[in-house]
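Subgroup meeting minutes
Present: P.N., E.W., G.H.
Scribe: E.W.

1. P.N. recapped why we're keeping a running log of single-chain structure predictions: easier to compare across weeks, and new members can see raw inputs and outputs side by side.
2. G.H. added today's entry (132 aa).
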Amino acid sequence: MSENFASFYRKASSVRELVGKAPFPEKARFQITKVIELPANQYRRYMNELLRDVSFISRNVTDMRFDGKTETFLCLFVTCRDANTGLLVESEGFGYARYAAFIPEKSALSLDGIPTERASEKCLCRHPTPER
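Output recorded in log:
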C-alpha cells in the first residue's frame, strides 16, 4: 500500500476555511477506512457545514482515530459520485469533522477495496450544534 499524506485542519467550518487554518501536523499520514458517498446537493452543503453533527459520522465514529504509534489519521473519505474532490474526516469521537483535509483530486487516491457507504439525504437534516 502506498503512503498518503494530507494537511489536516482542526475545527474548520467549511472547505474555504481549511485554507486559512494552521494544519496539524503540517503533513500527516492518513489511511481511509471507509468512503462515504453523499448525493451531490448534500455533498455541496456538507462542504460548507463541517462543524455540523451528522449521522454518517456518528455511525462510523469507531472507524476514525489518530494512531499515535504510526502517526496516521484513520479517517472517512466523504465525496459524491460525480465530484472529483473529497474530504478526509476524523471526528476524534465526536459527531462532526473535528479534523478535516480537502482532497482536490480523488483520482489520486487508491480507493479499491475500501468499503463504501451511500449516505441518505437525511444525514444533513440535523440542526447545527453550538460552538465547540
